Amino acid sequence: MSQIIATFVRVIKELLRDKVLVFWSVFFPIIWLIMAKVVFLANAPESEAVPFRGTFTISMIVYAVMIAGMVDLPGNIAADRNKGMLSKLKSMPVSQFKDFVGRNLAFLVFSLIAIIAVLLIGVLLGSKFSTTEVGLLQCAGYILLSILASSGIGLILGTMIKGEQGALYTGIGVALITSFTSGIFTTYSQLIPVLQFFSRIYPISASNSSLIYILIGEKWLATTHWSLAK
Q1: pLDDT band for position 96 (cuts 50, 70, 90)
Q2: 203-215 and 46-67 are packed helices; what angle lies between their axes, rounded to 10 degrees?
């Protein structure tokens, strides 16, 4: 247990100290939320602006999770590899599984920090959500699914790509490309049939659509993302 805690504390400190990671995971989604209100929705009727702000806030929360898992995690793994940390762990009487657990717990907490920050700003900018106690539990499950899926992709990238910069930029590319091709940053109707199929089976876009369905409603899901009824 002490090894898990030690790994968790070390990794979470490294993440919070890295200004670049904090910017892309927290402040970049917040900047887009502000732009949505000030630029894109400046002249929109309030009846249309409020649900759109809600759906956009959810998408930015999911994107923050993607960046934490697909960019920050592989970058941290590559950095430890370059510093010789992983080689030292192999030669020490420590459990690699415990290191894995501690590292992923750190990214879980870091993702939750990003989620709370983006959610608070979204609410302050006028986003509104409505659900039940059961709906909240479902939302927690879908957010956890997004975190696990993003971390899984991040672990693959961190294992395959040795250089820190290469891991970071590849993660950013994967996050952006999959966001646009799975309907997170675009509407489901704009996707070609192959990408529509990808959007339905991709855990992160499926979680994004499910969160909108639960917190905003089926009407806005149908106009902005793929419909669960299909």
Answers
A1: confident
A2: 150
- Return the domain boundaries, the chain: 2-224
Q: What is the pTM of this model?
A: 0.84
Distances (CA, A) of 66 to 43, 50, 107, 182: 31, 25, 11, 13
Alpha-carbon gap, residue 7 to 10, rounded angstroms: 5
How remote is the C-alpha of 10 from its chain's centroid? 22
